[in-house]
Design a protein that fits this description.
Helix 2 runs antiparallel to helix 4. Strand 4 and strand 5 form a beta hairpin. The two termini are 37 Å apart. A twelve-stranded antiparallel sheet has the order 1-2-4-5-6-3-9-12-11-10-8-7, covered by helices on one side. It folds into two domains: 107 residues, Roll (Thiol Ester Dehydrase, Chain A); 156 residues, Hotdog Thioesterase (Thiol Ester Dehydrase, Chain A). It has four helices and twelve strands.
């Protein structure tokens, strides 16, 4: 499989136009996190270094073909003294497969507060998925470079009235570059992984077709993607073939570093035996 360094290394074709690699993958459709991460890299490369991305909002318009590269077209919507905005369109074969708006900020002094990390087992107390990789679905083998450790359902601290919850410790197994922006773009890739699964928790025996429809991500505090992060996930609603999911991402010391909201397709699959 392609490394995250390879995936996030884009070729600049001309001003504000970039092209991603054809990643080595087992997936039949381009992973949404790959498209989001590459789109963010494209936007970052058109912004002055004093600005840091603080949010992105994206829509997955069509399934991506993993056998051909995606070209990213960047529109410079606004360049202000404190904020700037970029719109990125991911294109394959002349058709848009993804569109994203990203906002950048120089940072200012202001009020401060944050949610506390919920009580969870330490990642060292949980099994490494790599030890049982043969037992995992091929989707997780696709991400063997990531150390994913799921908190058992019976050990999750339940929030009242929230039946669909899931918690995952994750980190990149290797050592990533020191550039903080690289870690931000890596998290854009990672944040699409496992989140929609939180909607499936109360419906473990129901077969559904899943796909990301949109994705919103806020970067709140500095972090490293090659150090442990807790992805605290929940799904407040599912219906009409769609599920709304949300996640809070904490570093190991308990600081809230990012927040995610995603709606995904959860269309019921027909039972082959009934046809």
């Amino acid at each position: 499989m392609s490394s995250i360094e390879e995936i996030l290394e884009l070729e600049q074709l001309e001003k504000d136009i970039f092209r991603g690699i054809v990643a080595d993958t087992m997936l039949t459709r381009t992973f949404g996190g790959q498209v989001a991460g590459q789109a963010l890299v494209s936007a970052v490369r058109t912004v002055d270094e004093q600005y840091r991305v603080h949010s992105l909002h994206g829509y997955f318009l069509r399934p991506g073909n993993p056998t051909i590269p995606t070209v990213f077209l960047v529109d410079r919507i606004r360049d202000g003294r404190s904020f700037c905005t970029r719109r990125v369109t991911g294109v394959q074969d002349g058709q848009a497969i993804f569109t994203m708006s990203a906002s950048f900020h120089v940072g200012d002094a202001g009020i401060e507060h944050a949610d506390r990390m919920p009580p969870v087992p330490d990642p060292d107390e949980l099994p490494d998925t790599a030890r049982s990789v043969e037992e995992l679905s091929w989707e997780y083998r696709e991400w063997a470079d990531w150390d994913l450790r799921f908190v058992p359902q019976e050990q999750i601290t339940r929030r009242p009235g929230v039946p669909a919850q899931q918690q995952v410790w994750f980190r990149y197994r290797g050592t990533l570059p020191e550039d903080p922006v690289f870690h931000i773009c890596t998290l854009a890739y990672m944040s699409d992984m496992t989140l929609l699964g939180s909607a499936q928790v109360p419906h473990a025996d129901v077969r559904v077709q899943q796909a990301s429809l949109d994705h919103a991500l806020w970067f709140l505090r500095p972090f490293r993607a090659d150090e442990w992060l807790l992805y605290d996930q929940s799904s407040p609603s599912a219906g009409f073939g769609r599920a709304l999911t949300q996640g809070r991402i904490f570093d190991r010391s308990g600081d809230l570093v990012a927040a995610v909201v995603q709606e995904g397709l959860t269309r019921l699959l027909r039972d082959p035996e009934s046809e």
